Amino acid sequence: MTNEELTHRLATTDEWIRSRIGVATRHMIDPGTATSDLAVEAARRALRSAGVPGAGAVLLATTTPDRPCPATAPEIASRLGLGTVPAFDLAAVCTGFVYGLAVGAGLIASGLVESLLVIGADTYSTILDPEDRTSSVIFGDGAGAVLLRAGDSEEPGALGPFDLGSHGELADLITVRGGGSRQRSSPAPADPGDQYFRMEGRAVFANAVARMAASSQSALKSAGLQTSDVDRVVAHQANARILDAVATELRVDRDRFVSNIARVGNTSAASIPLALDHGLRDGELRAGHRVLLTAFGGGLTWGSTSLTWPEIALAD
Ligand code: UT7
Question: By residue range, what is the domain housing residue 63?
Answer without folding.
Answer: 3-149
